[in-house]
Amino acid sequence: MDITFTPEELQQVELHKSKYPEPKAAIMPVLWMAQKKWGWLSEDVMRYIGQLLDLPTAHVKGVATFYTMYFKKPMGNYHIQVCTNISCMLRGGEDIYRHVSGKYGISHNQRTPDGKYSLEEVECMGACGGAPMIAVNEVFYEKVDIQEVDKVLDSLS
Amino acid sequence: MYNTLPHLVLPQIPNLHEIDVYRANGGYDAYRQVITMTQDEVINEVKKSGLRGRGGACFSTGLKWSFMPKGNDKPKYLAINGDESEPGSFKDRQIFEYNPHQLIEGIMIAGYAMGISKAYIYIRGEYHKWVDMMEAAVRQAYDKGMIGDAMKKTFNHNYSIDIYVHKGAGAYICGEETSLMNSLEGDRAYPRFKPPFPAQKGLWGMPTTINNVETLATVPPIIKIGAEAYSKIGAEKHPGTLLYGISGHVNKPGVYELPTGTLLTDIIYNVCGGVPGNKKIKAIIPGGSSMPPLRGDRIEGVRMDNESLREHGSYIGTAGIMVMDEDTDLVKVLLRITRFYHHESCGQCTPCREGCGWMEKILHRLDHGDATMKDIDLLYSVAGNIEGNTICALGDAAAWPVRGFIKLFRDEFEKKVKSNREFVSMNVVHGRVNTMSDLVVLN
Predict the structure, then answer these.
(1) Quick one: which of A30, A95, B19, B370 could link to B140 by a disulfide (CB 3.0–4.6 Å)?
(2) In the sheet that B208-212 helps form, which strands lie side by side, from edge to edge?
(3) Are residues B258 and B241 in contact, defined by beta-carbon separation less than 8 angstroms?
């Protein structure tokens, strides 16, 4: 796989660099761009970003591994995140996690063999008023029960 | 009654997130007023209002601003903390969604008062939709010449500020101000030692102020209604309105803007419609998961301001109230809280990195019925050895709920240990059959 940004994307990288006094600070937005483009951050992607921002690969890897939302392995097309932190736990978040886990036969940070779904037990997503909640990729579904979760998940394919 | 109270941060105006609607409702007028004042006058006005930070530490905002060095000989920065990752708090999200321009105006006023020309709004990565909303609002503000170079012309004043939105990527620790700075600079988000404090040496080594989203969104209304009037709202020592985020076992969870010092029972029973099934309340966490809990049978008369809560052994934190009914297994709750802190510990300081893991293990033992009475004291002492022995407050945040829950609900923990004993004694009886003495008897 050819790991390079298109000229337009490189322009975007320059824009990110211009926001900060030092180009190093652009690492987070550029990692986000890379994850959007390639789905996850492989060693090759991290090396490429290091070259782009003039940073050692070790630094890029250090930053990427610090944050849970940067994927260090391929995840499913639909990344299902179930919150089980207190507010969600009090309202049945753990049952939802168990249900989704059973439905696809995967557990925390795993994906189905066809690469379609992956599951993550996430820490508080800041939607406690809508507990229990799940998120699929970037979309939040709040105040859900198992039936609604099924409806959401079945409508994905 | 609650509809007549002032809504300063989240007024009930449809489409307020659109800049035209915001301006039609007096938006950006507070800034116009501010530029007729000197920097010190603005800071004094905020000091006089009694506004205290909404991120949890409750520090006087005006005082914080006054720590910034005067003059323009080197760049200064403003970082806006929208990392909001504390379980139980979900208030800043409402500002990004419903009133982002008031935050922008608050940033302009803060920037003007401290002579800052660059501001970074740090929003947690999980808030994809809200990052987009905030970015859209900032773009609108640029397009209409409210910020950036164009604002000099719009307001006929030579001050200008650039605002950027920075998206996090899922680390609770980034809500700690020095860790947020490292994250912004593109490093691993390890908290820094203080001193030097950010006002002396912050982002890129320059003077920096870090304010919570809600704090800055509260500044424009203070300018508009005046510090005097603002300081009369709510509790005397902790005035103003708060965005209370209520979750857990209540009928109508959500974010409500109410004055500080509102009775906790009022919030739960009158605003949030009580507990489902009219159950009794066993425990309440009043300000996000790191604050010590309150006993449900002792909440009569507790007011939601820092002073009143301190008298009752807790703090206001982020005003994220979590209600737990009588059927809640508190050991399980505490295990979940501790697991969170173990997961989110950045790993820099040994007491927190190792201690949180130990506490999780002990709680796991307790929850699974494998613990002894000694384990409860062990848990308490591990928490005591984390507290105050780490660079940042995450260690304290992990220790407070552990000590708080054990202090108030020791019987729950003991029950877990005892229920286990019955189970073990059955095994012992079973085991005794195979001992020598039993075999002798059998013969």
Answers:
(1) B19
(2) B162-167, B118-123, B77-82, B208-212
(3) yes
Give the pLDDT confidence of B135-178 residue by residue, as tens digits. Answer: 999 999 999 999 999 999 999 999 999 999 999 999 999 999 99
Structure token digits, residue A39? 């789905």
Q: Which of B271, B320, B252 is nearest to B90 (CA)?
A: B320
Range of the domain at B160: 19-231
Whether cis (ω within 30° of 0) applies to the bond prior to B292 is: no
Chain centroid offset of residue A135 CA: 10
| CB neighbourhood size of B59 (10 A) | 11
B160: tokens are 């200008």
CA B382, B384, B386, B392: dihedral to nearest 10 degrees? 160
A83 and A133 in a single domain? The answer is yes
- What pLDDT shows up at residue B369? 86
Instruction: Using an 8 Å CB-CB cutoff, list chain B residues near A21.
Output: 75, 204
DSSP 3-state of B282: strand
In a domain, B78, yes or no: yes
Q: What's at A7, amino acid-wise?
A: P
Residue A100, domain CATH: 3.40.30.10
Interface probe with A: pick from B90, B134, B172, B360, most Cβ of A within 10 Å: B90
Distance CA A126, CA B431 (A): 50
Name the residue facing B186 among A27, A70, A128 (closest C-beta). A27
Residues 254-293 on B with a CB inside 8 Å of A are: 254-255, 285, 289
Does ipTM come in above 0.95?
yes
- Closest listed residue to residue B417, CA positions, set B382, B374, B378: B374
pLDDT digits (tens, 9 = 90+) for A30-83: 999 999 999 999 999 999 999 999 999 999 999 999 999 999 999 999 999 999
Query: Do residues B129 and B55 lie in contact, with contact meaning Cβ atoms separated by under 8 Å?
Result: no
Chain A residue at shortest CA distance from B334: A86
Residue type, B241: T
Q: CA separation (Å) from B282 to A141, B64, B294, B296, B416?
A: 29, 38, 9, 5, 16
What CATH number does the domain containing B293 carry?
A: 3.10.20.600
DSSP character for B191?
A: P
Number of domains chain A contains: 2
- Chain A residue closest to B335 (CA)? A86
CB contact under 8 A, B90 and A126: yes
Buried b (16+ CB within 10 A) or exposed e, B91-105: bbbbbbbbbbbbbbb
Joined tokens for residue B147: 């910020």
The conformation of residue B124, written as its DSSP 8-state character, comes to: -
Structural domain boundaries enclosing A40 = 7-66
Does any domain span residue A45? yes
In a 10 Å sphere around its CB, with 0-12 CB exposed, 13-18 middle and 19+ buried, how is residue B357 labelled?
Answer: middle
Residue A2 lies in a domain: no
Distance of alpha carbon B230 from alpha carbon B241, whole angstroms: 9
In a domain, B8, yes or no: no
- Is B310 domain-assigned? yes
